[in-house]
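Ops channel
N.P.: pipeline sanity check, posting one input/output pair.
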């Protein structure tokens, strides 16, 4: 190799690196040039250098604390300029008032590399998204939720029995996150597949094979999810999957085994999602050349995202609610009395759907837990057309826009002493009330969480049965401030959360 060639190569490398550096400098001046306050980015990662070191939940809380007086701030998802809005007024604009400009979520993946992950309700773009949502909405009517609550109550009874067996009789330490993930996993088995499974009874559960993988956040799984949620273009390039291959194959096998069994027996089950998804498949308007595989994958994708969403968020909310009740015995006593009074007044040991909805203080405890510990700390949208945010800032097409849920929920003007868990502040708040866009744990507008009512009734059923039988006390080895898991994209207690169960 000649000296001239080496010199030329070195010059080209220096020029290339210099041009790349100049591009980054220019790119990272994006918000400065627009007069928007912004987080100083890392030269390669933008503002994503926190990933795997602290939780997403902590990051957005720190943004709120650092920029508490700012209506919006600029950050960089890698090299991508992203706007974070932090006031109820701007949240209302993004989520509802000007929804036509923010119809799509940021997440996306390729059907060829991730057939299920690319077809979930959270991944679709409009108009396919709105059509799918319309078809799925009947699954969550009040009538269906009443039927589902019967299944939830049966699993909540098994949850109570497991607590007695393992954590009182055998005095085993409790991992709340894992315990409640078993409960929600068993509930999903009934409500999605119509099968009776029991991780709570230590019986080998096919659903627990899938869900235990979903709720245990490893470094690599957390990194994969972070890339999918924050840098979807890179995720598509790396062919990352929202659901692992083993979980995907297991869901497919379970789904079609249930379908085959029902066809052979000539049975249907209107209480579960399988039957509804089969009807959905018949009603889908797909391209003529798409074949049956796309329709099958569409069904399976909705089942998969429902499993992940309902287990992860409900188990986290239950964990933090029980943790707070253990540290607030006077409030726990108030809730316990409300539940006991309802049981006596109704003349039944287990409260049904309408009974659970009447428990106002139980509602307040759940809502306050969702305020202080929203499972999803930000709501992501993508600007689909040039949009005038205010007299100073214009959002360009393709720019991601985040609603900082932590900033809304921790605003001391709306929630005095926001770090304090105080259910009384929610005593007159209805489950559907967003408090003028200051309270959005399930999102809001057309993209609000379709399974919201399902998730809340699942939490109600478990809390009502547990607190009618037990009191909870703090674990001496567990600090009051439970550190979030840095590997989890959604909020999850790193230790799992611990309390001590005591018979009432």
């Amino acid at each position: 190799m000649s000296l001239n060639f080496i010199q030329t190569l070195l010059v080209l490398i220096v020029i290339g690196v210099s041009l790349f550096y100049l591009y980054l400098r220019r790119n990272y001046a994006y918000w400065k040039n627009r007069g928007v306050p912004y987080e100083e980015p890392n030269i390669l990662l933008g503002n994503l250098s926190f990933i795997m070191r602290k939780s997403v939940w902590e990051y957005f809380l720190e943004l709120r604390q650092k920029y508490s007086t700012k209506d919006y701030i600029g950050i960089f998802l890698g090299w991508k300029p992203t706007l974070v809005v932090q006031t109820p007024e701007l949240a209302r604009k993004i989520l509802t008032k000007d929804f036509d400009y923010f119809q799509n979520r940021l997440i996306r993946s390729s059907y060829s590399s991730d057939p299920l992950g690319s077809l979930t309700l959270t991944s679709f773009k409009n108009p396919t998204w709105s059509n799918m949502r319309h078809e799925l909405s009947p699954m969550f009517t009040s009538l269906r939720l009443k039927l589902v609550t019967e299944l939830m109550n049966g699993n909540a009874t098994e949850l109570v029995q497991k607590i007695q067996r393992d954590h009182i009789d055998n005095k085993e330490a409790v991992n709340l996150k894992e315990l409640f993930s078993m409960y929600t996993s068993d509930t999903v088995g009934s409500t999605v597949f119509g099968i009776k499974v029991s991780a709570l009874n230590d019986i080998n559960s096919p659903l627990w094979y899938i869900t235990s993988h979903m709720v245990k956040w490893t470094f690599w799984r957390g990194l994969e999810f972070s890339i999918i949620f924050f840098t979807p273009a890179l995720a598509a390039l790396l062919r990352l999957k929202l659901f692992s291959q083993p979980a995907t194959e297991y869901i497919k096998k379970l789904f079609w085994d249930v379908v085959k069994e029902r066809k052979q027996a000539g049975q249907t089950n209107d209480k579960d999602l399988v039957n509804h998804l089969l009807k959905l498949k018949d009603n889908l308007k797909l391209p003529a050349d798409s074949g049956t595989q796309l329709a099958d994958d569409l069904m399976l994708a909705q089942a998969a995202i429902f499993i992940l969403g309902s287990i992860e968020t409900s188990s986290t909310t239950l964990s933090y609610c029980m943790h707070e009740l253990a540290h607030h015995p006077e409030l726990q006593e108030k809730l316990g009395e409300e539940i006991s009074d309802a049981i006596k007044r109704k003349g039944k040991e287990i409260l049904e759907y309408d009974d659970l909805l009447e428990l106002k203080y139980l509602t307040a405890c759940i809502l306050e837990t969702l305020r202080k510990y929203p499972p999803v700390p930000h709501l992501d949208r993508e600007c689909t057309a040039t949009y005038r945010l205010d007299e100073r800032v214009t959002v360009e097409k393709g720019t991601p826009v985040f609603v900082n849920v932590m900033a809304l929920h921790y605003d001391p003007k709306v929630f005095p002493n926001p770090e304090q868990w105080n259910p009384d502040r929610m005593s007159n708040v209805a489950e559907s009330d967003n408090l003028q866009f200051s309270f959005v744990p399930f999102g809001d507008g057309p993209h609000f969480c379709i399974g919201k009512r399902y998730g809340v009734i699942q939490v109600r059923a478990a809390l009502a049965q547990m607190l009618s039988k037990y009191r909870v006390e703090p674990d001496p080895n567990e600090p009051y401030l439970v550190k979030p898991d840095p590997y989890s994209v959604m909020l999850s207690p790193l230790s799992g959360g611990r309390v001590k169960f005591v018979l009432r």
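N.P.: looks fine end to end. The domain at 55-503 is CATH 1.10.630.10 (Cytochrome p450).
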